């Protein structure tokens, strides 16, 4: 009698175990499906709403008079402006972050307090919202008496992507085997030579990926350029002129009550999404191609 | 930088070189040219090290620079009003010189809380599925897809929110509760934000789960635990610090997110009273007031103070999460 009871109990436990397993597995599959569906739905919405309005004129012309009332023209000003702001910011950020990363990994000792403090501060900076960088850039511009300009936008986006680029590069350079450095020292190289000729070459694909990730983040960000780069209907001719950017073009066109202009905002969103997806797919392919020649 | 250091070392060449150690080690006289070359290489190295150190110190101090600059700019308003009044007053009338941030701070908190409540369970279940249960095909397709979508700009998420979420709330969710809503609401902003932080949380937690040694799972499974029990008692426990880090990362992204929230939150300067009512989060306020900022006295100062508050809260989050992480890690070991 007792044995039967015991085995019944065991069955109950096993049953509960199995039921729990079932329930949670269903929940997991459901939530995975929900998340993937939502993400695909976003892409689908952007394509379905954006593609019909997209035309060659949108890509190649600047807004004509009455553009924001539904007249002709395009958003070439915003496309070129976005690319200029980002290219400038990428250049500045590479000049700042590459030496920093090389210093942390080649010159500083691996676990020195200074190195870990620097990494920590980059981690913290990564979390700082882009609107704060926008406000900071704006404050600096007030300090120097600048108006909204391409230069201001470049500065703000540089601040925004600097921590992203540095941390991503740092992760890559950290993966370079210590033996490679030791071998270069044995051959008589100075640390600088080892850094420039061995470390950079070995981690080049990763560095490129870091640059592309930073580019994608910079191109898509609106809050940091809102105060600093301003908005204009023209392609900027100098660093001190304001520059339009794609995210802001989307935002402003969406704010008008006219349906045609709103449709153009969807088309701009499509352009921006395509640029960013191209960059991120490109960076994946690039890193795969380059790693072929690396030592492991 | 390379060119500048080489030109400097050119000028150094005319001076007598410091006796370098390599020459002494070799113990034999070296041709002058080689000594010169070695000297210049060492000098180059030193110069590069110094300038790199300078840049590193500079960029690690950037956070202080930002805080200092924002504080400097917000001092005029802090001189006029007490910080407590600014933080807890609910009246926002810039034209009369009344700057109460309380509605905006509450708006931010509501929106972020809704986003985290929606995102965390969904993301954790997905991350567990992807790392523990999913067949290889699913895993290989789902993870890059999620990563790819992390790059989609916030304006696009905001636009999608206006096209899909806002009508959904207006036409279905609000009537279902028997109330009216324009759709531009705390819930809309929270849902859009939740979707925005999906990729962040999933990516980090999948990586954390992947770092747990496989032997631990095998040990649990061989004791007769089911897959879910293994996850519950072994994987989740071991991964807790990483999960906290993932959630906090998502949280701080949601906290400072500007454009998407600005587009769907409704932007009414009142303390939110319900999920279906409008909110006006802090970042949206900063971005939205750009036009009138310079024409109203103290307005720019107030907005820079708002960004300082935002910065302070995000810093607090980040540093706190670090400390928690360190403590939890110590407990597990």
User: From the alpha-carbon coordinates, what is the Rg of chain B to the nearest angstrom?
Assistant: 28 Å
CATH topology call of the largest domain in chain A: MetI-like fold
Overall residue-averaged pLDDT value of chain B: 81
Oligomer: heterodimer
User: What's the CATH H-level superfamily name of the largest domain in chain A?
Assistant: MetI-like
Please compute the radius of gyration of chain A using only Cα atoms.
Answer: 26 Å
Give a quick account of the main beta sheet of chain B: strands, pairing sense, barrel closure. Answer: 2 strands, antiparallel
Kindly report the spatial arrangement of strands forming the biggest sheet of chain B.
1-2
Largest interface: A-B, 89 and 88 residues
| Count of distinct strands of chain A | 0
Describe this structure as you would to a colleague.
The complex is a heterodimer of chains A (296) and B (333). Chain A is flat, with a radius of gyration of 26 Å. Chain A has 296 residues and is mostly helical. Chain A folds into two domains: 49 residues; 233 residues, MetI-like (MetI-like fold), CATH 1.10.3720.10. Chain A is built from eleven helices and no strands. Chain B has 14 helices and two strands; from the N terminus they run αααααββααααααααα. Chain B has a two-stranded antiparallel sheet. In chain B, strand 1 and strand 2 form a beta hairpin. The longest helix of chain B is centred in the C-terminal third of the chain and has 34 residues. Chain B is flat. The chains are: A mainly alpha (296), B mainly alpha (333). Chains A and B meet through helix 1, helix 3, helix 4, helix 5 and helix 6 of A and helix 3, helix 4, helix 6, helix 7 and helix 8 of B.
Quick summary:
The complex is a heterodimer of chains A (296) and B (333). Chain A is mainly alpha-helical and 296 residues long.
Highlighted features:
heterodimer; A: 296 residues; mainly alpha; MetI-like fold; 2 domains; 11 helices; flat; B: 333 residues; two-stranded antiparallel sheet; 1% strand; disordered N terminus
């Amino acid at each position: 009698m007792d044995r039967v009871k015991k085995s019944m109990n065991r069955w109950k436990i096993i049953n509960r175990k199995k039921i729990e397993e079932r329930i949670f597995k269903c929940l997991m599959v459901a939530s995975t499906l929900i998340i993937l569906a939502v993400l695909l739905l976003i892409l689908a919405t952007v394509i379905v709403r954006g593609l019909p309005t997209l035309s060659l004129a949108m890509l190649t012309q600047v807004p004509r008079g009455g553009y924001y009332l539904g007249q002709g023209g395009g958003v070439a000003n915003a496309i070129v402006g976005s690319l200029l702001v980002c290219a400038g910011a990428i250049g500045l950020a590479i000049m700042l972050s590459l030496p920093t990363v090389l210093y942390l990994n080649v010159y500083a000792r691996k676990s020195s307090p200074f190195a870990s403090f620097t990494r920590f501060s980059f981690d913290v900076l990564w979390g700082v919202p882009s609107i704060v960088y926008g406000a900071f850039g704006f404050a600096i511009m007030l300090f120097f008496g600048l108006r909204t300009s391409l230069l201001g936008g470049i500065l703000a986006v540089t601040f925004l992507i600097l921590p992203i680029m540095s941390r991503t590069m740092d992760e890559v350079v950290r993966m370079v085997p210590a033996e490679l450095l030791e071998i270069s020292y044995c051959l008589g190289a100075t640390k600088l030579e080892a850094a420039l000729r061995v470390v950079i070459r070995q981690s080049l694909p990763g560095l490129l990926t870091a640059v592309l990730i930073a580019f994608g983040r910079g191109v898509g960000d609106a809050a940091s350029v809102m105060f600093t780069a301003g908005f204009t209907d023209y392609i900027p001719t100098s660093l001190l002129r304001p520059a339009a950017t794609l995210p802001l073009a989307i935002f402003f066109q969406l704010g008008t009550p006219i349906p045609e202009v709103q449709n153009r905002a969807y088309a701009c969103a499509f352009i921006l999404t395509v640029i960013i997806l191209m960059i991120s797919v490109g960076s994946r392919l690039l890193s795969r191609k380059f790693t072929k020649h690396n030592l492991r | 930088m390379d060119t500048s250091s080489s030109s400097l070392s050119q000028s150094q060449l005319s001076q007598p070189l410091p006796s370098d150690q390599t020459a002494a080690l070799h113990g034999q006289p070296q041709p002058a040219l080689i000594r010169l070359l070695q000297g210049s290489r060492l000098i180059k190295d030193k110069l590069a090290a110094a300038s790199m150190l300078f840049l590193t110190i500079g960029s690690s101090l950037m956070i202080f620079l930002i805080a200092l600059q924002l504080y400097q700019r917000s001092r005029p308003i802090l001189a006029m009003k007490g910080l407590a009044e600014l933080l807890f007053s609910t009246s926002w009338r810039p034209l009369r010189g009344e700057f109460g941030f309380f509605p905006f701070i509450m708006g931010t908190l509501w929106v972020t809380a809704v986003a985290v409540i929606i995102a965390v369970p969904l993301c954790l279940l997905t991350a567990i599925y992807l790392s523990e249960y999913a067949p290889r095909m699913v895993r290989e397709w789902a993870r890059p897809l999620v990563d790819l979508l992390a790059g989609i700009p916030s304006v696009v998420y905001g636009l999608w929110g206006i096209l899909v979420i806002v009508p959904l709330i207006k036409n279905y969710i609000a009537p279902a509760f028997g109330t009216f809503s324009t759709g531009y609401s705390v819930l809309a902003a929270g849902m859009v934000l939740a979707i925005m932080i999906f990729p962040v949380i999933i990516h980090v937690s999948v990586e954390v789960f992947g770092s747990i040694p496989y032997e631990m799972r095998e040990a649990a499974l061989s004791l007769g635990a089911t897959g879910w029990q293994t996850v519950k008692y072994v994987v989740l426990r071991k991964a807790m610090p990483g999960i906290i880090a993932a959630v906090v990362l998502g949280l701080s992204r949601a906290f400072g997110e500007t454009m998407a929230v600005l587009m769907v939150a409704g932007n009414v300067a009142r303390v939110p009273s319900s999920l279906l009512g409008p909110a006006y989060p802090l970042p949206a306020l900063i971005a939205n007031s750009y036009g009138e900022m310079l024409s109203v006295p103290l307005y720019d100062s107030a907005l820079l103070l708002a960004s300082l508050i935002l910065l302070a809260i995000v810093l607090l989050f980040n540093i706190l999460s670090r400390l928690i992480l360190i403590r939890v890690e110590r407990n597990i070991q």
